[in-house]
Amino acid sequence: MDQHEINLCLAIKAAVEESIENMVFMVIDTDLNGVSEDIGRDAVMASLQVLEPRPGLLRLAMPRSTAVEISKNLYSISDGELSEALIQDVVCELLNTISGRVMKRVLPAECAFHLGLPEIADRPFDLRAPFVTCSFLADGNLLTVAVQV
Would you say the pTM of this structure is higher than 0.85? Predict the structure, then answer.
């Protein structure tokens, strides 16, 4: 891993910790020892384009169970009150928040950036190179952020 990738991973980690801990009060852990990083077939995935200062892409992927837990914590609701639309909205908003925080950390303070709108993926997408991919546990629930900038 080169220095750019290390710096990007540190920015992603800080953005995920700040976003998840502040929005849904879940503790973020980077120690995945013994945890499978397989997102699974029922994954909820979203992507967001970086439009300026140069093109890029951010992706957020998690098992549906993680998306459900995050949604329940965010809205303080039960499983029965959740809809698929609400879960997808939460994942998109989380990606939007994380993306803005990542960009603020990787760009100089005077550099403006412009992001597209987050979109739920209609089919699984690849999280491998050329993406810098970081996985986390939010109170034991897996989530992965991939960035290409």
Answer: yes
Identity of the residue numbered 96: N
pLDDT for 36 beyond 90: no
Residue type at position 2: D
Q: What is the DSSP letter of 43?
A: -
Q: Contact at 8 Å (CB) between 59 and 47?
A: yes
**Which domains does the chain possess?**
3-148 (3.40.1550.10)
Q: For residue 3, give Cα distances in angstroms to 8, 40, 48, 74, 128.
A: 8, 31, 24, 35, 18
Report the SS3 class of residue 21.
helix
Kindly report, residue by residue over 78-98, the tens digit of the pLDDT.
988 999 999 999 999 999 999
